[in-house]
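ok here's GNAT family N-acetyltransferase, seq below lol
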Amino acid sequence: MVRRLDPADVPLLYPLIRIALPHISMRDWIRIGRRLARSGPRVREGILVAHYGIARPPCAMATFRRGFDLYSGDTLTSDYIITLSYTQRQKIVDALIPAMETLARELGCDAIRMFSYSNRAINQDSPVRKLCSTSHITERTVRLDRNKEIVHPS
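and the structure came out like this:
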């Protein structure tokens, strides 16, 4: 089951946040989560939350934001997909994709863009500890109207 972030989900998502973004405190997460849980016609960012079942706690989350790209047009971008289970990651992502497509259509987007990271490491040299990737970032953009991957010109 996948749905938009509900205010009641905010504290339940903190273990997922700590996995990927350990520099975010519970207090900061509550503030950020409340902002991302807002609803309404003008909301352009938020979080999709995946649950294994109705009464089960969250098992994954995907951030989203609506933006414009010169190549793809209006695009729904997911910068972070965080899963509780590494072994079930692909199944969870497969459940998130249709929800992202539905949301993208609701927001009037032409494409969906997702980023995935591997070899995550904490940047200890930064004054603000943050998640970084050692250049192992995969980006995939899919047009909604043709459901084909966009191949950027070389």
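fwiw Residues 2-143 form a domain with the Aminopeptidase fold (CATH 3.40.630.30). kinda neat tbh
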